[in-house]
What does this fold into?
Amino acid sequence: MIAIIAAIDKNNALGFKNKLLFYLPDDLKRFKALTTGNTVVMGRKTFESLPKGALPNRRNIVLSRSNILTLPGAEVYASLEEALKHCDDNEQVFIMGGASVYKQAMPIADRLYMTEIDATAKEVDVYFPTIDHELWQVTKRDVRHADDRHPYDFAFVDYEKKA
It folds into this structure.
């Protein structure tokens, strides 16, 4: 099972200068709950953006064209295709960015775990690929309202690829 997990604004914006656009504690909790005990795949820049390096209690796979790169707590592969060859069929794999990795993974992903934020980021330099609703169907939507910890309304939206 290959899943993509991401948080986007109204315009599919993902980030700016290798940072998340919005701080939503419940989104971070959901990310941790879904990915813990599973495999996460990310590009090198996404790995470098992690405040403490490799994510604990997960198999961390980093994609990098550099064949000499070694990263503590992570396996490094040259391509998404190569990385997935090293994953078992029963392994839950979460693609967690960045934009080019999401683009590569969209055709082969089975599920999308999206946090759709009801806001527009002021500064953006990377976007999530457009979700084609002819190919993807919403299976669950959990709407959350702004509160003292979350400055914007948002929704956890799960998609499955249509058969």
Q: What stands out?
A: The chain has four helices and eleven strands. The radius of gyration is 15 Å. The helical segments are 25-35, 44-49, 80-85, 99-105.
